Amino acid sequence: MRARLLLSAGGMTDASQPPFGLPSLLEKFDPSLLRDFMAAQGHSRHLRFQYHGHGDDWVEMAMDWREDLVVDEESGALASAAIFSLMDNATSQAVWTRVGKFRPHATMDMRIDYLRPSPPGARVFGRGECYHLTSTVSFVRGIAHNGDAADPVAHVAGTFICTEGYFK
What we know:
Layout: H1 2-10, H2 35-40, H3 42-47, E1 50-54, E2 58-63, E3 70-72, E4 77-78, H4 80-99, E5 105-114, E6 124-133, E7 137-145, E8 152-162
């Protein structure tokens, strides 16, 4: 379903093609090339996700604190749904980064353990890692933090299922 939403957001009908309008992603997926797409489409646009960095099997994104994302006016803490969305996006891109190309997939399971609220004014970084692949399932983990990975806001663990074709 997630892949279908991405595809409809990008206005594409062929699920084997990246919805980003970037043919170069067919040869080698590069999450840094998604900046413009994320800034212009769907919930990534609304939440204003920003690319922060990546490696062979991980992607880090960021989201700035905003008053309209606050869940509790008294504490100023960010809504957990916004952090969940950031982590789902970072781990999803980590899968494509490890595979090396865009593969339509859907979140099959995502567990998030919140350790503390993200405080007012604090940027949230979401680092997702794809640590294992089968032909149709990817396994991910990650942390959300405010700039110090040793003091996480949340931990995530999950799986994605390839909806067309195979991961490898």
